[in-house]
Amino acid sequence: MERLLAESEVKAEVRSLVGRMLWVEVWGAHITADKWWWEDAACVRECLELGTFWEYHTIKGVKGEER
Length: 67
Hints:
Helix content is 54%, strand content 0%. The chain is mainly alpha-helical. It has one domain (2-50).
């Protein structure tokens, strides 16, 4: 059970890191603040209190075979 909990925590940390990297890639060029929102303790605290989270989805489209 402890192993599953530890694995779950590692996966959550990796998801968080990848999410931040994706956020920087998409929005980073448009940000003029001195630090990222996740580096602001008050912002993180507010997100935790309000249950705010980022959700990403991947949509793949492929061209079907011509008949």
